[in-house]
Amino acid sequence: MPQTPSRTFIRVRLRCLYQRWASVAYSQSRVVSASKALVLAVSVCCQHRAILNPLQFLTNPTYELEFIVHTSILNEEFSGNLSGYISPSVLASVKSLRSVFDNTKPFRYVAIDGFFRDDILQALLMDFPKKDDSYWRFCSGQDGGTTQDGGTTGVNYVNAERQSWPASYLKLDALVQSRHFLDFLQSLTGIEGLEYDKEYQGGGIREASAQSVQPIHLDFNYHPRTGLHRRLNLLWYLNESWDPSWGGDIEVHLDPRKFVGNSRVAGYSPIANRLFMFETNEMSWHGVSRLDAPTNRSRRAFSLYYYTPTRPEGNLPFRNTEFAEAQLPPGLCEGHTLTKTDITELTNLLKRLDDRIQMLYELRRGFDAKYLHLFREYEYYLERYRESIGK
To answer: What is the pTM of this model?
Structure first.
């Protein structure tokens, strides 16, 4: 049996006292030595001012070092043969799609219809996970509460566990990590050095049930484990015979804190074989409108995110996903008589706000338990200092 080609990576991650991350990936046909990878990492960290002096690394115990070694299998079936999977019309339109991507506001995005060849699309539709016993362990919101991705009531399926995926999704996974597909994305976006996320943080195979909604939000901007910069979101939709009146649109927004109640710029229905791709940055506010589909229909998608070791604007302050809670529905104005639907929507809005406040309280409790000794030490030494100067 011929040997499956592979590429081995060593990534060195260095963390300093203030949680600044600097990451570097170095790859070649064989594993580089640990010492060479370490020298490269320290050099890059110095360039990004994560370490002001290389000697600090040798003498300061606040630095942590981690070697991450993994082998990425490159499926020969996808090497140099994108036309076997991506629609010829899409491959022939890279230049025009790049122009659309570059000229959209308030951030760069593009919606590409008919992305996959029909046989690939049909395989993905047919192989979508069924609601068997294994399905439910990837679900949140089964208790009617807020789901992990910011949705409200309804069951939401999010499966990032590749070893559990059906065959057609494993083929898709092999495609999106191939060098040829990365080059294709670079041509579409102009973003160099994109790296596939084998962990599918926040992504994977997804299914949202009726009445789900994802409020306007900004995505997290660093990979939680590798520290790489999140740069590009890809969302493929897998919903046949979709009625636009059902909602579930992916929506582009201005900053909802500045344009209260008037932030929506555009929306796109999650129709089958549509790819929605956008650059992840400090302006990429987006959300998903409420899903009012029949109870036997759901919103299906496959999503993943790409990263780079650096970004043009430099290191940004770390941010987790930030949600902007929905405002009052536009129809609620003076003189309006509340309907049963209005009451339900207001109840959901208040519950979301209560849940968010509860989450902040829990974070505060954890923070206090972890760092209370630091405040006590600070107060102790501050008091000693005041005594020393006679105050």
So the answer is: 0.72
| 131: Cβ contacts below 8 Å, ≥ 6 apart | none
Q: Are residues 67 and 83 in the same domain?
A: no
Residues 68 and 80 occupy one common structural domain? no
Domain of residue 357 covers: 332-391
Give the tens place of pLDDT for each residue, 232-291. 999 999 999 999 999 999 999 999 989 988 899 999 999 999 999 999 999 999 999 989
Residues 84 and 218 in one domain: yes
1 occurs within a structural domain:
no
How many angstroms separate the CA atoms of 21 and 34, rounded?
Answer: 19
Q: How many domains does the chain have?
A: 3
CB distance 221 to 316 below 8 Å: yes
Residues 6+ apart with CB under 8 A from 178: 74, 75, 78, 79
Residue 50 forms part of a structural domain: yes
CATH number of the domain where residue 166 is located? 2.60.120.620
Cβ neighbourhood burial of 172 (10 Å; 0-12, 13-18, 19+): buried
